[in-house]
Specification:
By secondary structure, the protein is α/β, with parallel strands linked by helices. It has helices at 2-16, 30-82, 87-104, 122-133, 163-170, 197-209, 212-215, 226-235, 251-255, 288-301; strands at 154-155, 185-191, 218-222, 243-245, 267-272, 275-281. Residues 80-91 have a biased composition (Basic and acidic residues).
Length: 304
Amino acid sequence: MATNLLLFVYLVFVTLGLFALDADAFSPLHHHHHKTSCTTLFMGKGLNKFKNKQADLKRKLELAKQQNKKDDIDDDDDTSQQKHLTDEEIKEQNDRKRFEQLLQREGATMLNNYESEGYLSTQQEEEEITAARSGADRIFEGDPAPVDCFEGLVSVTTEKSIAKKGTGRLVPWLAKDYNIDHDDYRVIICDPRQQSTDLHQAMKDLNGALPKDIKDRLYYINADTPAENRRWLKKNGLRHLDVYCDDDDKTWMRSYTALGDKRWYISMFVIHKGKVSKLVREMDVYNAPKTVLNAVKAMKSEQL
């Protein structure tokens, strides 16, 4: 009776389309078949997920390939644009590349001619040559050394201008006992920046590395006040250094064209027999001792 009732209910559902008529439904193996179907369904979902990941990876690879093609096109465009550069623009690019190569060289030093007793880097030499060719209004090696501007320098000790009387100490050829055969010279290092850490570092390094005969002829000119200079010199145990302050208008530095065209920096001048014998603009503070030594050696060798 119960079996007939179940059969009747099943036939009703089949008629309504809720169940599909399947002979295996009454088979003892139906339960096992249902389990296998569920497992297949589960595996199918996992396979689809894997396929989706593969498709996503493929799309990313395609996008990467398309980006590479775009970069290649951009490189071709850059090459095409470079063909239209002027000679001057190409030279500027090459100069920048050479400068970057200099910075990347072992030792990270601007000076690359130590073995040949050089005191200028390749970049500094090229800059000086370019300035000379362009007729820049600046002092070059071999030019007469200005002397009147020394009178306005202020002594760190007395806080007074050295005036004409004190100029002879800094300018050998103005001294009363000077004669043309006298081989005296002066090394002057200046920086128009106030409280310059670069200048302070150079002063420390030069004091510890230079021989006495050069240190006795070395003078510093900066834009700090006498009191500021005294405090720093005392704090660092360097009160014996010869330091002078330029006036408010920076007359000395202007006279020696040491203010820079675009920015301020450290400059070094070796003055000798009425002329600027050697000069270095934008002196590399980390190689200051070698720069000064080589400049003095070069100056002396020209006198032989």
